[in-house]
Design goal:
- This protein is of the alpha+beta class.
- It has 12 helices and 19 strands.
- The chain has a 9-stranded antiparallel beta sheet, sandwiched between helices. Strands 12-13-14-15-16-17-18-19 form an 8-stranded antiparallel barrel.
- Helix 2 packs across helix 6.
- The longest helix has 15 residues.
- The radius of gyration is 22 Å and the shape is globular.
- The N terminus is likely disordered.
Length: 458
C-alpha cells in the first residue's frame, strides 16, 4: 500500500499503456486535463485510469487508456481498482463513527483495546492513544521489523495477527508519541482494534458503517464473481501482469477495492451538510488534530493540505495507484484510480484537483537525458543522510545511478547534466554538490517545492 513520506520519497512502479481515446461524460474540464494525461500515456507511465470529479453538486467521469494492455478496452466508472492507502480514510471514518456513538474516546490508550497479553510500548510515560494511531503520531514505524513476506508480489498475504502482536510486544519506541511518522502498521492495527471493539470483521464494519448507507455496492475487500470480472488487472515495473494484494491482518491500512462511481458517492457524502450520523462522522474525520512543521495537518486518516481546507490521501499497491481529494468549502472532490503503481499519479491527481478548484495547473517540465562519464557516476556512489534516521543510498547499476531511500525500493535516476539527475517514477530531482576539492560531499533532493540537503557519510 502506498504512503507519503515526510521526506517525500515514494515507491513507484513504471507501467506501459497504449494511446486510447478518452471516455467522458460531460466533463467540462476535459480539455484542461488532456495535456496532463497524454504524457502519462506517451511516456508509458499508465495502462489505464479513471477520473471522477464532483463539483457544484454534479459528478463527471473521464477515463483513459486500457483495462488490459493491448485490449483496446477503455475503463469506466464501474471498473474496479485496489485503492491501497486510501483505505486509511475509511478507517479514520470508522473511528470517527465510534467516537460519536460513545464506543471509544480518541484519547483512550491503545492498550485499552488489546488483549492483556499484548503490551503497547510507552515512551517517557506517554501512552499511545487511538488519536495518535489515526494521525500517524504514535511513534510506531512505517512497517514492523518482523514483516518478511514469502511472496514480494503479494507482500501482506502471510502477515498474521500473531505477528502483529509479537512486534508490538517487542518494540521499543524511539521517542514518545506526538510526532508525525507515516505508519502502515499503526493504521492496520487501528483497523483491527476497531473491528474487535465492535465484534465485527473489518470489511463488514466498513460495509455496514459506510458502504451500505451510501449505496457503495462495489467497495469491498472480497469481490464477488461479477466484481472480479470488472477488476482492472495490475501491472508491474517490467510491464508484466502483477498480483493483487491480500491484506488480512493489516486490512485497515490498505485492503479496500472500489470504483470511481462508488468513490464519487463517498465524495458527495463528505461534501454534504446534514445531521445524519454518518455525515457527522465524516465531518468529524475532517477536523485537524495534528499540525506539522511543513504546514500539513492530519485529521482522522485524512491529510490536510497547506491551505488548511483541502483534504487528501493517496494510495498504491503492487499494480494500482489512487488519489482522493476533497474541498468541503468549495464543494469539490476528485478521485483518480489507475491500474498502475506509479507515484507520478499523485502529481497528476494534484493538478486535476487544482483544475477542478478553478486554480492554475502547471504541466511538468520536460527533461532530456544526457550522457555522463561512467567514472563520474561511480564517484557519486555512497550513502547520503538527510536525517539521522533517513537517507539515500546511491549505487551504480543498469548503466546508471540507482537511488534507494531508507526502507524503500531502489529506483533509477537519469542525468540531465553532470550533476543534476531526475526520477521518472515521481517528480523529484537530485543535484550533487562538490566541495572545494571537487569530491561530492552532499546532494540536494528537490521535490514538492522543497530542497532537502543530504550529507555524504561514506
Amino acid at each position: 500500500m502506498q504512503r507519503r513520506s515526510r521526506l517525500f520519497l515514494f515507491v513507484a512502479i513504471l507501467i506501459c499503456a497504449a494511446a486510447i481515446p478518452p471516455l467522458s461524460y460531460g466533463l467540462n474540464e476535459k480539455e484542461k486535463i488532456d495535456p496532463f494525461v497524454h504524457p502519462l500515456i506517451r511516456d508509458q507511465i499508465v495502462v489505464g485510469l479513471t477520473i471522477g470529479i464532483v463539483k457544484d453538486g454534479e459528478s463527471r467521469i473521464i477515463a483513459y487508456g486500457e483495462t488490459i494492455r493491448g485490449s483496446g478496452i477503455t475503463p469506466d466508472g464501474d471498473t474496479l481498482y485496489e485503492i491501497g492507502s486510501v483505505s486509511k480514510v475509511f478507517t479514520g471514518v470508522l473511528l470517527a463513527s465510534l467516537i460519536r456513538s460513545g464506543d471509544v474516546n480518541p484519547g483512550d490508550p491503545l492498550q485499552k483495546y488489546l488483549p492483556a497479553s499484548v503490551k503497547v510500548p510507552v515512551a517517557d510515560g506517554k501512552p499511545i492513544t487511538l488519536e495518535h494511531v489515526a494521525t500517524h503520531t504514535s511513534g510506531l514505524p512505517r512497517m514492523p521489523d518482523n514483516f518478511k513476506p514469502a511472496n514480494p508480489l503479494n507482500p501482506y498475504a502471510d502477515y498474521t495477527v500473531e505477528q502483529m502482536f509479537a512486534f508490538l510486544n517487542g518494540h521499543k519506541l524511539r521517542r514518545p508519541p506526538g510526532q508525525y511518522e507515516y505508519s502502515n502498521y499503526a493504521m492496520g492495527l487501528l483497523g483491527y482494534v476497531l473491528a474487535q471493539r465492535t465484534g465485527t470483521p473489518y470489511e463488514r464494519l466498513v460495509v455496514d458503517t459506510i458502504c451500505k448507507p451510501l449505496g457503495m455496492n462495489d467497495t469491498r475487500i472480497t469481490l464477488n464473481q461479477d466484481q472480479q470480472k470488472r477488476l482492472a488487472p495490475p501491472y508491474d515495473m517490467a510491464l508484466k501482469s502483477s498480483l493483487n494484494w491480500d491484506i488480512p491482518a493489516l486490512a485497515g491500512a490498505g485492503a479496500i477495492r472500489s470504483s470511481v462511481n462508488d468513490m464519487i458517492r463517498f465524495i458527495k457524502a463528505n461534501l454534504k451538510k446534514d445531521h445524519k450520523p454518518l455525515t457527522q462522522a465524516l465531518h468529524l474525520s475532517h477536523m485537524k488534530r495534528h499540525n506539522m512543521d511543513d504546514g500539513l495537518s492530519m485529521g482522522l486518516g485524512w491529510h490536510v493540505a497547506r491551505d488548511g481546507k483541502t483534504l487528501w490521501h493517496n494510495g498504491g499497491t503492487g499494480g494500482y495507484h489512487a488519489w482522493l481529494a476533497i474541498s468541503p468549502e468549495k464543494k469539490v472532490g476528485v478521485v483518480v484510480l489507475a491500474n498502475t503503481a506509479n507515484m507520478r499519479l499523485d502529481e497528476f491527481g494534484e493538478q486535476v484537483t487544482r483544475i477542478a478548484l478553478g486554480k492554475e495547473a502547471k504541466l511538468p517540465k520536460p527533461r532530456k537525458i544526457v550522457k555522463v562519464d561512467p567514472a563520474l557516476l561511480k564517484s557519486y556512489a555512497g550513502f547520503y543522510a538527510i536525517t539521522p534516521e533517513f537517507g539515500l543510498n546511491i549505487t551504480v547499476g543498469n548503466g546508471g545511478l540507482m537511488v534507494q531511500a531508507s526502507g524503500q525500493d531502489r529506483f533509477p535516476v537519469f542525468p540531465e547534466s553532470r550533476v543534476k539527475f531526475f526520477y521518472k517514477v515521481v517528480d523529484a530531482q537530485i543535484t550533487f554538490v562538490p566541495n572545494n576539492g571537487a569530491r561530492i560531499n552532499k546532494l540536494i533532493l528537490h521535490q514538492n517545492g522543497r530542497d532537502l540537503e543530504a550529507f555524504r557519510k561514506n
